[in-house]
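Quick one:
INPUT:
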């Protein structure tokens, strides 16, 4: 029996519109900033891939956007964001900027969580609830234990991801616009080159959190 209702379709339609606008904004920003570094290009590509996949996910017949391959791709994307915060020190006499690296690392956690949520939904489907996970358990007792534990674990993971993404969305959507002329810190200068980026990121975090909690 299908879970689709007119109200659910309306929510999915709004989410699709939001993710489509986000994907187009990523393309627009990439076209306006042709001299961005390699890391930034990969970031933009991953943001575009996620936004496009999330826009299509509610309407995918037969769930072609789910499965092991998509989970692997977005798991790798989730690891890329925090790991790429650490850049090698090219000069032997130069001390690493620990505070700057920590700030960059913290700033890359929200997109990492979004990619992780996408990987989670690719494997576990609607509301993070997996299918039959105890089919290969040899004993009936073990099967019962796994069947009882799996939904609880899935619900916990879904809840943690959703709450974190909602927090990221609130933080991004309530941030003031960066000062274009007076930005001095590296993070502020980066924000000034993409003044609407935090709105896009907040909308994506909010949409991903909602998608985690909806059947799709």
């Amino acid at each position: 029996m299908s879970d689709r209702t007119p109200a659910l379709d309306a929510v999915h339609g709004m989410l699709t519109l939001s993710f489509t606008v986000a994907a187009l904004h990523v393309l627009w920003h990439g076209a306006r900033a042709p001299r961005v570094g390699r890391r930034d290009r990969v970031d933009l590509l991953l943001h575009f891939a996620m936004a496009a996949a999330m826009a299509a996910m509610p309407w995918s017949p037969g769930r072609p956007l789910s499965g092991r391959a998509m989970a692997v791709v977005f798991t790798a994307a989730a690891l890329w964001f925090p790991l790429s915060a650490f850049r090698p020190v090219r000069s032997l006499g130069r001390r690493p900027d620990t505070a700057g690296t920590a700030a960059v690392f913290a700033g890359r956690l929200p997109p990492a969580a979004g990619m992780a949520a996408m990987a989670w939904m690719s494997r576990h489907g609607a509301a993070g609830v997996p299918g039959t996970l105890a089919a290969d358990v040899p004993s009936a007792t073990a099967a019962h234990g796994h069947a009882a534990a799996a939904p609880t674990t899935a619900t916990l993971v879904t809840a943690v991801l959703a709450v974190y993404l909602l927090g990221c969305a609130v933080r991004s959507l309530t941030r003031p616009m960066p000062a274009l002329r007076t930005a001095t810190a590296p993070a502020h200068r980066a924000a000034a080159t993409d003044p609407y980026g935090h709105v896009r990121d907040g909308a994506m975090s909010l949409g991903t959190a909602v998608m985690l909690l909806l059947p799709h």
